[in-house]
Specification:
Elements: E1 12-14, E2 27-29, E3 34-36, E4 58-60, E5 62-63, E6 71-73, E7 81-82, E8 87-92, E9 96-99, E10 103-105, E11 118-121, E12 132-133, E13 136-140, E14 143-145
Antiparallel strand pairs: 1-2, 3-4, 5-7, 6-8, 8-10, 9-11, 12-13, 13-14
Disulfide bonds: 92-119
Protein name: Sushi domain-containing protein 4-like isoform X2
Keywords: Disulfide bond, Sushi
Length: 150
């Protein structure tokens, strides 16, 4: 019989002192994350005699919401799971207006409070982020629109 290795579980703390055959894994998730076991009827992970863990849990948050093309959100490109209570704010690039909720919140059910918004082009306006000057977006040589105005 072999000892088990210390498992790597993202967003979790492992509290075991030993990792021997038959030991139960003692895990707590970081705040805002919930523990999920592959076998929903067995909420225990045991060290098997071959040195592996059975039924290894995950600490889960809300999955990364879809990004809006022509817009951006205040989240890291690398983050894939978000704790309960996280609020994500969306903004559109200049020349686009937000359709939908500006903010999403990760709920206790591990889903987002609403669908991500979309960024729609302002009518008759083709520009990029570099075209913005102050509170105005330059859409052509002779017209200007405020961001979010239609």
């Amino acid at each position: 019989m072999r000892d088990c290795r210390i498992p790597q579980i993202d967003d979790a703390e492992i509290h075991n002192r030993t990792y021997r055959h038959g030991d139960k894994l003692i895990v707590t998730c970081h705040e805002g994350f919930k523990i999920r076991y592959p076998d929903l009827y067995n909420m225990v992970s045991l060290c098997r005699d071959d040195g592996t863990w059975d039924n290894l849990p995950l600490c889960q948050g809300c999955l990364r919401p879809l990004a809006s093309s022509n817009g951006y959100a205040n989240i890291s490109e690398l983050q894939t799971s978000f704790p309960v209570g996280t609020v994500i704010s969306y903004q559109c690039c200049p020349g686009y207006k937000l359709e939908g909720a500006e903010r999403l919140e990760c709920l206790h059910s591990l889903i987002w409070s609403t669908s991500p918004p979309r960024c729609l082009a302002l009518e008759g306006c083709a520009c990029s982020r570099e075209d913005a000057a102050g509170p105005w977006v330059v859409c052509s040589a002779d017209s200007q629109k405020r961001p979010g105005a239609s």
